[in-house]
Amino acid sequence: MTAYLLERAWLPSPDGGRFCDDVLVEVEDGRFTAVTPDADPPRAIPVRGLVVPGLANTHSHAFHRALRGRTQRERGTFWTWRDQMYDVAARLDPETYLALARATYREMAAAGITCVGEFHYLHHQPDGSPYADPNEMGQALVHAAREAGLRITLLDTVYLSSGFGAAPEGAQVRYSDGSVDAWIDRVSGLEARFGRTSATEKLGAAVHSVRAVPAADLEAVAAWVGDRPFHVHVSEQVAENDACHEAYGVTPTRLLADHGLLRPSTSLVHATHLTEDDVALIGGADAFASFCPTTERDLGDGIGPSRQLHDAGARLTLGSDSHAVIDPFEEMRALELDERLATRQRGHWSAPELLTAATIDGHASLGWDDAGSIAVGQRADLVVVDPASPRTAGAGRDEGAVVFAAAAEDVQRVMADGRWIVEEGQRYDIGLELEQAVARTWEEGR
Ligand SMILES: [Zn+2]
Questions:
Q1: What is the C-alpha separation between 378 and 27, in angstroms, rounded?
Q2: How far apart are CA 204 and CA 366, in angstroms?
Q3: In its keyword annotation, does this UniProt entry include Hydrolase (predicted)?
Q4: How far apart are CA 348 and CA 12, in angstroms?
Q5: Disulfide check for 64: which of 228, 268, 322, 392 has CB 3.0–4.6 Å away?
C-alpha cells in the first residue's frame, strides 16, 4: 500500500464534485483503498497542485496524428481533408503504426488522459488482403497503449462500403472485411486473445458510419455487440444525413435505433446535425454523445447541440478524434464556448459538469465503470495540474481554473492504475518520439 497526501483534489459530491484540501489517498493493487479529506497523516507522500481524476479520450484515430499541421494549410472541406487522411492510411504497416500510436498515446498521457477509446478501422494490408495475423494492426494499438501506460478500449470497426451501396475503393480496401460475417469472425478471434477480464485493455465495437455499413447488416452487428461498448460516427456532415434520407428515408440516428443499435452502451460520435427527434431518441436511450470540438472546428463540421442532448438525458463525453489538438482541457471548455457562439448566450455548462464529461462519463462510455473518480474502489488515476503556471496563476484553485484556464502543458504528473505514467520533464522526449514517428510515416529524411 502507498499513501499520498494530495494538496487539493477533486472528489465526488452530490452535486457532481468539489475540490477538497489535504486528501489522503491509499493505493493498493492499482485502486484507491482509502480517500480521506482534511487528513493530517504522519507518513504520506505529498502531491502538490490541483489533482483531478484520470481523463478519458473517447474518440481517437491514432494515425491521424501524422496529419497535424499539414492538412490545415489548404482550403477545402471535410471531404478534401479525407483524401489526405487516406494518404496516411495507405502508408502504415504494423511496425510504423505501433511507433506512431505509442508516441501519440504518450502525448495523450502527458495531457492527463489515462484511457483512450481507439476507433480502429485500418485492419488489412494495402491491397486489402489480411495480414498473416488478421488482427495485427489492432494488436499494434493495444501494445502501443500498454507501452504508453494508459488503458485502451479498442473499438474494432466494421466498414463495408464507401458510400450508400458503393464498394470500398483506394485506401478503404484496408478497412473492409468484405462482409459482416467476416468481421464477426475476425473480431471474435481478437476477443479470444483479449479475454474479457484484462486489467487495462477492453474490446468494444464500432460501425464506422451508416455510410459504411448497409442497414441489412446492422442487426448482425447489434447481435455481436451485446453489452460491449459500441461507438458510431453519426451526422457529422449534412451530406451524410441527405444520403441516408435518400437511401432509407430516415436520419442516421433513427436508422440505428430501428436496428437495435441505440442503447445505453452506445456512443454517438459527433452527433452534429441532429433533428429534434434524433435528440429525443438519443436522450431516451440513455446513450452517450462523444463530442470532438477541436476536430469539428478543424474540419468545419459545425456545432452540435450538446446542451440539448444533455437535457434530453444523454451523457456527453469528449474525444480528440483527428488529434489536430490533444488537449482535454480545451475540449472541455469548447463545449461551453461553442454553445456561446451558437446561441450568443453565456453559461450553458458548469465546470463540474464538464469535468464529469471528461472523467466519469467518458470512462463509462468506454466500458470502465470503475474509473474516472477519486473514490474508494476506483482505479487509482491522478492528474496533477499546476495551479501556478503562466496560464493558471491567479485563476482560482477550483474547477473554474481547471476547465477554463488550464491546458495540457499544465499537467505535471499522471498516475494510471496506481502507477505514475508521466513525470515532470518528459515533454522533450515525447516530442522527439513524435517527430521521429511522424517522419517515418511520411518517409521523410530517408
Ligand atoms: Zn472519428
A1: 10
A2: 8
A3: yes
A4: 21
A5: 322
What whole-number distance in Å separates Cα of residue 404 and Cα of residue 88? 34
Q: How many Å apart are CA 420 and CA 422, to the nearest integer? A: 6
Distance between Cα 153 and ligand 1 center (Å): 15
The pTM assigned to this predicted structure is 0.97
Active-site residue list = 270, 321
How many angstroms separate the alpha carbon of residue 375 from the centre of ligand 1? Answer: 32
Domains present along the chain, CATH in parentheses: 2-52+382-416 (2.30.40.10), 55-365 (3.20.20.140)
- CA of residue 319 to ligand 1 center, whole Å: 9
How much is the pLDDT for 193? 84
According to DSSP, the residues that pair with 385 across neighbouring strands are 50, 411
- Going from the Cα of 180 to the center of ligand 1, the distance in angstroms, rounded, reads 20
- Ligand 1 centroid vs 18 CA: distance in angstroms? 32
Q: Which of 71-75, 187-191, 249-253, 307-311 has the lowest mean pLDDT?
A: 71-75
Strand, helix or coil for residue 407: coil
Q: What percent of the chain is helix, strand and coil (3-state, nearest 5)?
A: 40, 20, 35
Residue 124 CB contacts under 8 Å (≥ 6 apart), including other chains? 130, 131, 134, 137, 173, 174, 175, 176, 177
CA R_g for the chain: 21
Q: In this predicted structure, which of 169-173, 355-359, 375-379 has the lowest mean pLDDT?
A: 169-173
Angle in degrees, 0-180, between the axes of helices 427-442 and 94-110, rounded to the nearest 10: 150
The neighbour count for residue 37, using CB atoms within 10 Å, is 15
Residue written as cell 494495402? 126
pLDDT at 137: 97
